[in-house]
Amino acid sequence: MYFIYLAIIILIPIYAQMKVKSTYKKYSQVPASSGMNGAETARAILDQNGLFNVRVEETPGMLSDHYDPRDKTVRLSTDNYHGHSVAGVAVAAHEVGHAIQDKEAYAFLRFRHALVPVANFGSNISWILILVGMLARIPGLLLAGIVFMAAAVVFQVITLPVEFNASSRAMDQLVSVGVIRNDEERETKKVLSAAAMTYVAAALVAVLELVRLLLMYTGMMRDED
Question: Which one of the record's GO molecular function terms can you name (predicted)?
Fold first, then answer.
């Protein structure tokens, strides 16, 4: 049973990554009808939403695109920055979606930002406490590790509405600005949906692992009685 569980938590992220890469590769070959590249798309959407102070920069790497709320900068990977594809403009619009969330103080985004230091600390220390608790058969340490891990799991789960909302905003903005036509929405949604799968997979694996550890803790407590 454990090997089946292990296979599931390994295969789910792998499948999600493969889906993202295959979908992105396919639609990076499909040009957007407007002829705009990712950088132009990002700039147009930012300006339409009054975000003139947000910069658009090129960043190295593949699919390394992100929005940095500290620097107020949308960073696009080279292919998406210069590319004129449906995939490139979709990714660019998604990252701008986060900038719009930041401007509007979107509740889930603010909550996620507040959780970052707690989640980072929890991720770093949780497994130390969990391993020591399991090896030394100390339920209190195991429970402490689970609590810290739960903070990281909450971060993964709260990421889902943030990402889905950014994609929803991206679709609206792409059509509104005229980057894509209505008949291109289907292809654009496929790119954004595939990208969202990675976050869903990460959250699912995190929740499953937390449940497994909770079951181990309850079993240890029964053994103590």
Answer: peptidase activity
